[in-house]
Amino acid sequence: MKPANRFDAAAATWDEKPARHELAKSVAKAISEAIPLSPEWRALEYGCGTASLSIMLSSSLGRIVCADNSEGMIEEAERKIRRLQIANIETALLDLEKQAPPEGRFDLVFSCMSLHHIADTASLARALVSMLKNGGWLAVADLEKEDGSFHGDCKVPHNGFDSSELARTLYSSGLLNPQIAVIHSIVKNERTYPVFLLTANKTASPPHAHARENMPEHQEHLRA
Q1: Among the four 109, 134, 181, 193, which has the fewest Cβ within 10 Å?
Q2: Distance (Å, rounded) from C-alpha 181 to C-alpha 30?
Q3: What are the structural domains, with CATH classification, of the chain?
Q4: How many CB atoms lie within 10 A of CB 165?
Q5: Looking at residue 181, what DSSP letter applies?
Q6: pLDDT for 204
Q7: CA dist 136 → 97, 126, 149, 221 (Å)
Q8: 38: how many CB neighbours lie within 10 A of its CB?
Q9: What is the phi/psi pair of residue 138, to 5°?
């Protein structure tokens, strides 16, 4: 993610843009359709922002840890969680570029529009996968590869992703059956930017090199 102070400054007004709420709704719907969520599950959202996505999924999960590297975002998330009286969400200030993953393992780890702020995607993928129980699920929503116009003058490490290449990165980190779907479009700067959801589940040990080479091509589904 970008240095936390940028998001600290933006946190108080983050939810004022309806487009962010619509994105969270689309991602929550897509995760619910792609993964067999359970009220017995313990989940972690990395790069939670103001926790909109976690709040939308909270009725389908047991416990959720909302983690972000921005103190401002965490404070805003805590205010929202208290206001809505949601009892099964807790927050954590966490920067996986500088800190080790927390102890304990999760049934689900998910992230929305955060990976393109991380320079070392492979390292982050390993950290996210390490937090999963065997058989646990990872869900990542982010921009498809774009020309850099989405963020304008604000430079980020990745102008979206080739979702197939990202699937291979996650597969190399120990995930099976990666599935990709375009689940939302963001209209910005008079342009349309597709958002994909990539889901996969964790195997007991990382795939062998020859297995990675023969990873099946993903099937892409367009959801309404």
Answers
A1: 134
A2: 9
A3: 4-212 (3.40.50.150)
A4: 11
A5: E
A6: 61
A7: 22, 14, 35, 22
A8: 13
A9: -115, 135
Q: Note the pTM of the prediction, 2 decimals.
A: 0.87
Give the model's pLDDT for residue 10: 82
Tokens 């099964």 sit on residue: 88
CA-based R_g, the chain, Å: 16
pLDDT at 224: 30
Q: Find all residues with CB under 8 Å of 2, minimum gap 6, and list them.
A: 117, 154, 156
Strand, helix or coil for residue 166: helix
Tokens of 90: 């807790």
pLDDT on residue 205: 57
CB atoms < 10 A from the CB of 190, how many? 6
Spell out, as residue ranges, where the chain has pLDDT lower than 70. 1-5, 204-224
Both tokens of residue 42? Answer: 């313990």
